[in-house]
Structures are given as structure tokens and as C-alpha cells.
Amino acid sequence: MKTAARLELLPVTPEAAAVVHELYLRCPTYIALIGGDTPTLNDIQRELETLRHDTRRQAYLLFQEGKVIGFLDYKVAYPDLHSATVSLLLIDERLQNQGLGKLVVEQLEQLLSGRTERLFAVVYGNNEKAKAFWKRQGYTHAHDGGPSLSWYVKNLSN
Ligand code: ACO
User: Which CATH architecture has domain 8-155?
Assistant: First the structure.
């Protein structure tokens, strides 16, 4: 497995919709897995506008050596004041399984450590790869939220 350099996390603004859209287009396996249509540029623009109005939502484009390698969307003080929840970590399909996802989670945990007691990850649909990934990062299954949401959690306080 390649060793990845530290990543840059840059907040996403609606102006970056085209870049986020391109990233989604580069992840057809994930889109097929969650059973949705490929989002249009308009869909992404609307989503980023929604995000802008929710001060607890934190969305970042992930860069390695100046290149976009992924997207991260999480929410602070959710589902309770002492927790945060990742709703999507998306790594460019061509760059998956090289340790980048793991690096993002490590950096996010460092960022939140001391401010947040627990980090949750909500896996949507029948996404066994994602479940295995979060378990590999030390997250344990917390509960299922209906038939299509699986919540995983890790305690960040030492
Ligand atoms: N089964 C078991 N272990 C796995 C699997 C798997 N299918 N995939 C990765 N791992 C392990 C790796 O072996 C590695 O372990 P190691 O460091 O001990 O060798 C570790 O997990 C880290 O793997 P990475 O290479 O960092 O994983 P990657 O960069 O591919 O990121 C991710 C994982 C985010 C799931 C990526 O594949 C992706 O973007 N998938 C499509 C979108 C998606 O499903 N995102 C998650 C949705 S759920 C959510 O975000 C809350």
C-alpha cells in the first residue's frame, strides 16, 4: 500500500459545484451501489447551497499535492452536543484502496479530538465495503436507523 502525504481539507463553497460534480462522475461504482441516478451539476449546486445554510454541516474538498482526491461531509454537535457524524467520505474511485480514506479519518479524528467525544459514521444502503472500512478504523456498530442506515461509532476521548 502507498504511503500518502498529509491531505489538505478545503471548505466547499457553491462555487466549487463543478469540481464536486466531476468527482461524483469519477465514482460510478458508488453511485450504482446507492442505487441513485448520477447527480447533475444542478443537484450538486442545490446541495451545496443547502449546506451553506446549515452551520453545523462541514463539507470539504480533499486535496493531495494540489489534486482533488475526495469529498468529506460531516456534521458537528450531531446527533448530540458531544458528537459529530460523518455522512459521506468519498474518495476518487481510481485512488481507492491506497490508504487515502484511512488518512482522511485520522486527520478528522485529530481535528475533532478534544472538542468532540464521539465520532459517528452513517453508512447508507448495502455498502459492505464502507462498513468494513469503518470497522477497520476502529469504529463499532452502534445501531441501525431503519433498513438502510447503519451507524458506526468511535470514542475520541483518551
Ligand atoms: N474490506 C476490508 N477492509 C477494507 C476494505 C474492505 N472492502 N476497504 C478498505 N479496507 C481497509 C484497507 O485494507 C485498509 O486497511 P489497512 O490500512 O490496515 O491496510 C483500510 O481499510 C484503509 O483503506 P483505504 O485504502 O484508506 O480506503 P479508501 O481510500 O478506499 O477509502 C472509502 C475507503 C472511503 C470507503 C472509499 O473506498 C470510497 O470512497 N468508497 C466509495 C464511497 C463510499 O462508500 N464511502 C463511504 C460511505 S459511508 C460514510 O461515508 C459514512
Answer: 3-Layer(aba) Sandwich (3.40)
